[in-house]
Amino acid sequence: MRDSRSYFDGIPEIRYEGPESDNDFAFRHYNPEEVILGKTMKDHLRFSVAWWHSFAWPGGDPFGGQTFERPWFGNDMDHAKLKADEAFEMFRILQAPFFAWHDLDIRPEGKTFAESRARLEEIVDYIGQKMEGSGVGCLWGTANMFTHRRWMSGAATNPDPDVFLYAAATVKSCLDATKKLGGAELRPLGRARGV
User: Fold this and answer.
1) How many angstroms separate the CA atoms of 15 and 8, rounded?
2) pLDDT band at 192 (very low <50, low <70, confident <90, very high)
3) pTM
4) What count of other Cβ atoms lies within 10 Å of the Cβ of residue 49?
5) Is 79 a catalytic residue?
6) Which Gene3D superfamilies does the protein's record reference (predicted)?
7) Which of the residues 124, 158, 168, 181 has the least number of beta carbons within 10 Å of its own beta carbon?
8) How confident is the model at residue 184 (pLDDT cuts 50, 70, 90)?
9) In the prediction, which pLDDT does 3 show?
10) What 3-state DSSP class applies to 50?
11) Comparing C-alpha atoms, which of 119, 131, 51 is closest to residue 87?
């Protein structure tokens, strides 16, 4: 499935060039090294690429279906790993210091909770490898408890004890995954792994 080409081939790394730049691939106002009130802009503005918005959203709205066709769209682990590969290429281009995710954004849903958790653990290990040496850290991870029909009556407020337990176990697995990835929101600022 994967080849040596990237979805983002030909897009240069985005750098600060100032407000007069006419380069479409340049920061005009965000200078990560500029010091403001004793901290760099990079420290003030902890930008994070949200996996859902950038890699999982199919481009639909309430009045229409999917409009995006992305090579990483699919319901298997090969597609999830391709999505991670392309995500880290985009993080590199944008010099993004962090990413954020929902469990459903980074792994396909399994037929059972155990299968979904195993897929989450597998992709978290893969993402952890991608993080090594990249300079990109995990800001936070969370559970998607709104897309699947099991959540139609809520998650933590669901009157069905099985759904409530599924929700609690999902939150626990996402907390474990976020901790494993060094989630910055679980520790003091500036202590994220790889950052």
Assistant:
1) 16
2) very low
3) 0.87
4) 20
5) no
6) Divalent-metal-dependent TIM barrel enzymes
7) 168
8) confident
9) 59
10) strand
11) 51
